[in-house]
Specification:
The protein is α/β, with parallel strands linked by helices. About 40% of the residues lie in helices and about 20% in strands.
């Protein structure tokens, strides 16, 4: 009887420990982009190397990810730096203007995502050449929309000058392959899966910007930085492509505990040499510690241990 009692007690304790394990949902992006693959690997790595269980789920991009976090339907998500700022400040979008997401917090900036204007039409050499064309501006709820609007504005155009389609990266790839659209905006770290697959099967071009229009884009949104896609990144693209990019962030809510936020950030950066995704090579504490929104206090604790002070809401 004593032996049975001891086994029962051990099981109860074990179940209590399992119940106490923090569980966080991490919304990523579509299957044709970096968010999806990288997010799944990060979630698995944190789960296997910390006391926090992170489950990655396919997302629809920055805006939608932030909305899910704000609703409490997710605790972590990928977001572009610019879109995170728009949400936090309550600008640039009617949903954000109605109610700013003031509880949004950054955990870390991970890498730079470039705005890639992709086409299979060699006659499209400039953003200005999009006038009257059928153009994918990202899936509904993604941050790509904002970048597409900025690119058009920098060239004196609006959405009324194009025939827009709201397609994911994977769907944009299929539409370009089949000739259903003329061009697509793809905002992700290069190489991007969908663009690589497109270029492997069909002549593909990425439109370069000039210095004048890069300056115009920086005037529109100061989080943009010059971004170069090196020659050879994609099949058939043998010259550097000059565009702009912004930081890719992991964002969270101020309702996530300091302990859990600390665990996620510290596990990723302490284990960066074991994370195999190509973008893991870009993990850098100095880069990670600046962005357009306040950092979570749990993340701030980890950065402080490394001698880096970040901006928090406190």
């Amino acid at each position: 009887m004593k032996k049975v009692f001891a086994i029962v007690v051990a099981l109860v304790l074990a179940l209590s420990c399992v119940a106490a394990l923090a569980e966080l949902k991490f919304v990523t992006g579509g299957t044709g982009g970096v968010y999806y693959a990288y997010g799944n690997e990060l979630a698995l790595y944190v789960t296997n190397n910390s006391d926090v269980a992170v489950t990655a789920e396919q997302g629809n991009g920055s805006k939608k990810n932030i909305q899910l976090i704000d609703l409490g339907d997710a605790q972590l998500g990928f977001s572009q730096n610019d879109v995170a700022y728009y949400a936090y400040a309550g600008i640039r979008d009617e949903d954000f203007e109605d109610e700013a997401v003031t509880g949004l917090r950054a955990l870390a900036a991970l890498y730079t995502e470039g705005v890639q204007l992709v086409t299979c039409n060699p006659e499209i050499k400039s953003v200005a050449d999009l006038k009257g064309k059928v153009v994918s501006i990202g899936s509904a709820g993604s941050g790509v929309y904002f970048n597409a609007m900025d690119f058009l504005a920098a060239y004196g155009m609006t959405i009324d000058d194009i025939d827009p389609r709201y397609e994911s990266f994977a769907d944009s790839k299929d539409s370009l392959t089949d000739g259903k659209i003329d061009a697509a905006f793809v905002v992700a770290g290069a190489p991007t899966t969908s663009v690589a697959e497109l270029a492997a099967g069909k002549a593909t071009y990425i439109v370069s910007l000039d210095a004048e229009h890069i300056a115009a884009l920086k005037d529109i949104c100061d989080v943009y930085d010059e971004y170069v896609i090196p020659a050879g990144t994609y099949d058939g693209i043998d010259e550097d492509v000059l565009t702009v990019g912004m930081k890719a962030l992991i964002v969270t809510s101020d309702e996530v505990s300091d302990e859990d936020a600390y665990a996620v950030v510290s596990t990723i950066f302490e284990g960066k040499d074991q994370i195999t995704h190509d973008k893991a090579k870009d993990l850098d504490l100095a880069y990670a510690s600046t962005c357009a929104i306040p950092y979570h206090n749990g993340a701030a604790k980890y950065f402080a241990e490394k001698g880096i002070e970040v901006v928090t809401a406190d």
